Amino acid sequence: MNYTPMDQYWIWLSCVEGMDPKRFYRLLSVYEDARSVWDALEGPGLPPEMRFLGDKLSAAVKSARSAARFYRLFDRLDKLGIRAVTRLSDDYPGALTAAYDPPPTLFVRGECPLNGDRMFAIVGSRRCTRDGQRGAREIAQGLAEHGVTIVSGMARGIDTHAHEGALSGRGRTVAVLGCGVDVVYPPENEGLMAQILDSGGAVISEYIPGTQPLPRNFPARNRIISGLSQGTLLVEGAKKSGAMITVNCALEQGRDVFAVPGSIYSPLSATPNRMIVDGATPVISPWEILEYYRWGERPERSDENPHKEVPLTEEEERLVTPLREQELSFEELIQITGFSAQKINSYLTMLELRGIIVKVPGGMYRAYL
């Protein structure tokens, strides 16, 4: 990766251990640019203008002022296949400048443009329901099929299913991490990260490579998720859901907010339902978002029964009906229908071949029709 000299000094300063956006920008308000900070550190001691950094960060900045460490930093980025995108670069997402304390530098794996005109965030609870999983996947898939890049945090739960849905729609998705982009978190999403990169997506972070997923990192990264996106959808979230941090960031940044409604008795629907009462746009399919932004036109609606053109036997109907309401496992279908395992297996195979049901991640089944 080729960087301009000014980019190099900017990246060097943003990679100093403990350097946060507030103190980074304060340094640049005192000095003309990052190169001037480097030059000011040439002599012994610390310039008095830098004392606001505090003892620990001051020592880190002084220690980092080393040609060997400078060049080692860029060698490491190259070996890891990571590009650093600074606010000086044309590749830096302009939308992020609306975020409070925009990241001085983004560390990026993957080639997905971060300045796209169709970027949309989907977030929600880590402990989500089957309906929440399905909603995140299907909405993300529908958006991806219309060229929308799905942005989320690759966390367990709704985030993971949103990324998977985008991949199912053969679209691109961006994962914003609360750790270094060379660190897989949660560890079970190693395969998902590989799929995101292989499909033309990106994994990004404001944290330097090697940064571990510390709890304090995640609230800060949420401003990037919403800041990259034109709107943010909350699929599920309890009253004190961490996903609300992303929603609040979106509101502060002047972005649109959307929510998937749910049962008034479900704790995980409490926050989305309250958002809708307070004015958020309700979403029950990708079309509410696609039409809102004029990214797609809904097919002609029909008042006809969507199931009547699909001939099913009485026994097939017993199997398909509960799958229209929710995703179910093989064992649950046995309990609900009373059929033997052999009969269930036979029906599932035939109904899958006819395109009436589909097997989804987790060994679950759901009906298409």
Number of domains: 3
- Compute the average pLDDT: 91
CATH architecture of the largest domain: 3-Layer(aba) Sandwich
> What's the tally of helices?
15
Molecular shape? elongated
Q: Give the strand order, joined by hyphens, for the main sheet.
A: 1-2-6-5-4-3-7-8-9
Distance between the termini: 49 Å
Describe this structure in words.
- With 369 residues, this protein is an alpha/beta fold.
- The protein has three domains: 1-78; 119-292, 3-Layer(aba) Sandwich (Rossmann fold), CATH 3.40.50.450; 314-367, Orthogonal Bundle (Arc Repressor Mutant, subunit A), CATH 1.10.10.10.
- It is 43% helix and 13% strand.
- The chain is built from 15 helices and twelve strands.
- Helix 1 (5-14) crosses helix 3, helix 6 (130-144) packs parallel to helix 7 and helix 6 runs parallel beside helix 12 (286-292).
- The longest helix is centred in the middle third of the chain and has 15 residues, at 130-144.
- The termini are far apart.
- The model is unreliable at 302-308 (pLDDT under 50).
